[in-house]
Amino acid sequence: MRFLIISDSHGDIDAISEAVRRRGGRDDGILFLGDGIRDAETVSMRERIPLFAVSGNCDIGTSLFGEDYKTELSVTFEGVRILMLHGHLHGVSGDGLSAADYARFRDADILLFGHTHIKSDRGLPSEEDKKALHIFNPGSISRPRDGSASFGTLEIKDGRFILGHGIL
Fold first, then answer.
1. 39 vs 16: CA distance, rounded Å
2. pLDDT tens, 33-53?
3. Nearest CA to 133 among 106, 115, 168?
4. Helix (H, G, I), strand (E, B) or coil at 41
5. pLDDT in tens, 89-148
6. I need a surface site. Which of 53, 93, 150, 162 has the fewest CB within 10 A?
7. CATH classification at residue 104
């Protein structure tokens, strides 16, 4: 399975469309991490790609279709458990460890979050009673704070996954 991971589009539908174009429109879904729900809905509908989304701190009441997006979503694909957050309610602007602890509590294999507008990709090894966790932020597709507009990619096969970044 292939997924496009997007966060923090803040009204830039064209940037999401460009990421979809660069991926060849062959993704099994868009994982949207908040702050631009309408943008993600528009592209998802136009490109006929399923949308899995959480709301961000700028998404209050902004759905095109009256959807009530939550601030977190747990999904499982091919045995890989993913916790999606925008992150503003879980301290991701600091070291992100409270969000990581929460993701481990929720038994996630991957924590996806946005909010910071900064790309990140790191793994936490397993510890005594905690399993390993991969933490990933795609950065911002439209308003980066680290120089380059970016998106994330996720490929899952046979319970294994590969995460990466793409630059616009």
1. 8
2. 999 999 999 999 999 999 999
3. 106
4. helix
5. 777 776 656 899 899 999 999 999 999 999 999 998 888 778 899 999 999 999 999 999
6. 162
7. 3.60.21.10
Contact predicate 166/140, CB 8 Å: no
Provide the token pair at 37: 């729900």
Domain count, the chain: 1
Distance of CA 74 to the CA centre of its chain: 11
DSSP state of 65: T
What is the overall mean pLDDT for the chain? 92
Burial 12-28, CB ≥16 within 10 A → b, else e: bbebbbbbbeebeeebe
- The reported pLDDT for the residue numbered 129 is 78
Whole-structure pTM value:
0.94
Q: Which one, of 111, 106, 161, lies nearest residue 136 by Cα? A: 111
- Which domain range does residue 30 map to? 2-167
Query: Three-state secondary structure along 82-141?
Result: EEEECCCCCCCCCCCHHHHHHHHHCCCCEEECCCCCCCEEEEECCECCECCEEEEECCCC
Report d(CA 155, CA 77) in Å as an integer: 10
In angstroms, the CA 110 to CA 157 distance is 14
Distance CA 9, CA 35 (A): 6
